[in-house]
Write a structure and sequence with these properties.
two-stranded antiparallel sheet; 340 residues; 5-stranded parallel beta sheet; binds thiamine diphosphate; Rossmann fold; 13 helices; single chain; alpha/beta
Amino acid sequence: MIRFLSDDGTPTGDLPLSETELLRGYRAMVRGRLVDDRMVVLQRQGRMSVYPSFRGQEAAQVGSALALEAGDWMIPSYRESCAAIEHGLPLHQLILYWRAHPAGWHFPQGLRLLPFSIPIATHLPQAVGVSVAGRYHREPWVAMTFVGDGGTSEGDFHEALNFAAVMNAPLVFVVQNNGWAISVPTHKQMKNTKIADRARGYGIPGVVVDGNDLVAVWYAAREAVRRARAGKGPALLEAVTYRMSPHTTSDDPKRYRGEDEVERWAAKDPIMRLRTALEGRGVWDDAQEAELRRSVKAEIEEAVREANASPEPAPHEIVEQVFAEMTQDQKWAWEALRDH
Ligand SMILES: Cc1ncc(C[n+]2csc(CCOP(=O)(O)OP(=O)(O)O)c2C)c(N)n1
C-alpha cells in the first residue's frame, strides 16, 4: 500500500509534493469537510433532500481530483461531492443538485463533469466512452471515474474494465474502498482481499493506496493520469478509506457497525494527518486554521444564499426534460397533478 504519512500524520520519509501543493490539498480538504457538515445540517433542517456525506473520504477525493489537469473529464458517482467541487462545480450548484431543484440538474457549460450517477456503476462504461471520445475530438484529455467497493461487484464495472483495456482508454478508475456498501462489509461482497487485483484480470495495473493520506492519493493518481495521457492506457487506484458518516442521511449505521470501528478510523482522519505533517514543517498554525475556516464558512453562506434565490420550480418541470416529447403516461401523470 502506497503511503507517505503514518497514521498520526508523521511523514515516513521525503514527501513527493511541494509545500504549495501540500497546503493546497489541505485547504481543499478542510473546505470539503465544512461543505459536507453544512449539507448535513441543511438536510436536517428540511432544506435539502437526501444527502450522501463523504466525511472521512476527503483525501481520497481531493487527491484524485487534484491529479486532473485543465481539459480533463470527471465522471462521478453520488459519493463524490468533494471531488466535484474540487473539479470546479460551484457550491450553490451542488446545493441545488442535492435539493433536487431542476436548476441543479444542469452543470455549467464548459465544466467537464458529468452529473452524479445514482445507479451503481452504470456510469463506468460511459466513462470509457467519454475518455476515448478525446481521440475523435483530437484533444488529449484524460478521464477519471469513481466507484465504491460495492460497485466493483456490479457487471458494469467488469464490462467497463475490459472495454477500457481493449480500447487502451485514457481513463483512471478510482475505487473508494470505504469498507461498506450500505450495511454490507467488503468481505461479504467478494473473495478478493485487494480490490486492485480485480484490475489485473483485465490486463490493467491496479494500485492500492492509503486513501486517508492526501499525499499518497495525489501522488498515485498523478502517476496514473500521466500514464494515461502518455497513451499507456487505463489504471485502477484502490483508495482504502472509511465512511465516517451514515451511508446517506436516511441511514442508521448503528444497526450494522460498532462505534469502536468508527473511533479507530477517526484516529486516522485524513485532515488531522496532513495538519500534523504541515505543523511539523512549521507551515501551518492555529491562526491560519481559523482564517481558513472563517473564509470557507463565508463562501458557503454566500452559496446557500445564491441557491435559496433560485425560484421555486414550476410543477410541470417534474415531467419535462425526461423525453423530447411527453409520453402518454407522463401526460396522464401531468394532468392528474395539474387537476389536483
Ligand atoms: C444499480 C443499483 N443497485 C442498487 C442501488 C442501491 N444502492 C445505493 S448505494 C448502494 C451501495 C453502494 O456501495 P458502494 O459501491 O460501496 O459505495 P458507497 O455508497 O460506499 O460509496 C446500493 C446497493 C443503486 N443505487 N443502484
